[in-house]
């Protein structure tokens, strides 16, 4: 916490147990302030996505979730997600928090033109219709730096590139102006140049809108580019947390040291492309 920002999300003793009785997330606790950028890192299977799903009340059927996840988003009041009913959760989604997933195709309907899909949350949540709606769709696609937004709006998802699809998914996630954006491996499926562009885009959008960000990745190099603070997950438990600088420069847990080692390798690959937009 930074003191002058309000706490937006408080996760305490979060636990997710599978139907077979396996502990997938164990006693995870952290807080996230309005506008703060937190990274969640760990190898594949460490429980990152399950943590994100529990935060949004979307764990698969049969999972036993315990502990506490409290959102305190401006205008929405305080909500305990654990144990909340579907109606309460629906009112939170999109406004308190929205998620961008690794594979943009999971967020997109293959049979629907991109523009109609971006229009849907704008129509539903902001009540826009007709030309106001068309203009909002164009603006949303422009905001994620898609070239020729009118053409993209008329295209089907398979007619645009993977990077463009992820930008569309980001536009949809931002449609209701969430206080917290959860990005779960948003660049993992993209090649390294496109990764850098999408990271730069997310970084800019989060800053411009003052959104909080929970950025999830198996890759410390990527997380350290965008987050201020990180939590390291291993087998569902948080083994280390701290500022990005501390964790990268002085990792305490052997597992974190291993992540730092592999991060250095990708980091040099990212450096060339990222230096361009980091420079003033
Ligand atoms: N629907 C499910 N049913 C049972 N186990 C699951 C399910 N989804 C994920 N898991 C298990 O939960 C653990 C954490 O998975 P996940 O949160 O997806 O990891 P990560 O996102 O860090 O790669 C893994 O061991 C995975 O096999
Ligand atoms: Mg995952």
From TrEMBL:
Looking up SUPFAM superfamilies in the UniProt record yields: P-loop containing nucleoside triphosphate hydrolases (SSF52540)
In terms of InterPro entries, this protein maps to: AAA+_ATPase, ABC_Ni/Peptide_Import, ABC_transporter-like_ATP-bd, ABC_transporter-like_CS, Oligopep_ABC_C, P-loop_NTPase
Instruction: Kindly give the Gene3D superfamilies that the UniProt entry links to this protein.
Output: P-loop containing nucleotide triphosphate hydrolases
Report the PANTHER family cross-referenced here: DIPEPTIDE TRANSPORT ATP-BINDING PROTEIN DPPD, OLIGOPEPTIDE TRANSPORT ATP-BINDING PROTEIN APPD
The compartments listed are: Cell membrane
Indicate the family of this protein: Belongs to the ABC transporter superfamily.
Q: What is this protein called?
A: ABC transporter domain-containing protein
Q: Please tell me whether the keyword Nucleotide-binding is annotated for this protein.
A: yes
Source organism, top-level taxon: Bacteria
Which PROSITE patterns does UniProt cross-reference here? ABC_TRANSPORTER_1, ABC_TRANSPORTER_2
**Record-annotated ABC transporter domain positions:** 9-260
Native organism: Microbispora siamensis
Its topology with respect to the membrane? Peripheral membrane protein
Q: Does this UniProt record's set of keywords contain Repeat?
A: no
Q: Name one Pfam family in it.
A: ABC_tran
User: Which UniProt keywords are given for this protein, alphabetically ordered?
Assistant: ATP-binding, Cell membrane, Membrane, Nucleotide-binding, Transport
């Amino acid at each position: 916490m930074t003191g002058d920002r309000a706490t937006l999300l408080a996760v305490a003793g979060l636990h997710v147990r599978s139907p077979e009785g396996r502990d997938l997330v164990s006693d995870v606790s952290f807080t996230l302030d309005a506008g703060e950028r937190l990274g969640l890192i760990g190898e594949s299977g460490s429980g990152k996505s399950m943590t994100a799903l529990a935060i949004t009340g979307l764990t698969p059927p049969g999972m036993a979730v315990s502990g506490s996840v409290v959102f305190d988003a401006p205008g929405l009041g305080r909500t305990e997600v654990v144990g909340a009913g579907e109606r309460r959760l629906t009112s939170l989604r999109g406004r308190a928090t929205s998620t961008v997933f690794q594979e943009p195709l999971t967020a997109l309907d293959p049979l629907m033109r991109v523009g109609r899909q971006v229009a849907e949350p704008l129509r539903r949540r902001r009540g826009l219709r007709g030309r106001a709606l068309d203009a909002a769709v164009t603006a949303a696609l422009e905001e994620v730096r898609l070239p020729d937004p009118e053409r993209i709006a008329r295209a089907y998802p398979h007619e645009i590139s993977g990077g463009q699809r992820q930008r569309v998914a980001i536009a949809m996630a931002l449609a209701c102006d969430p206080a917290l954006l959860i990005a779960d491996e948003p660049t993992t499926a993209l090649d390294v140049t496109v990764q850098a562009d999408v990271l730069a885009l997310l970084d800019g959008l989060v800053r411009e809108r003052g959104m909080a960000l929970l950025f999830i990745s198996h890759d410390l190099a990527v997380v350290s580019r965008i987050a201020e603070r990180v939590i390291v997950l291993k087998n569902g438990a948080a083994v280390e947390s701290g500022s990005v600088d501390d964790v990268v420069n002085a990792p305490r847990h052997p597992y974190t040291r291993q992540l730092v080692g592999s991060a250095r390798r990708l980091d040099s690959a990212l450096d060339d492309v990222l230096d361009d937009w980091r420079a003033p």
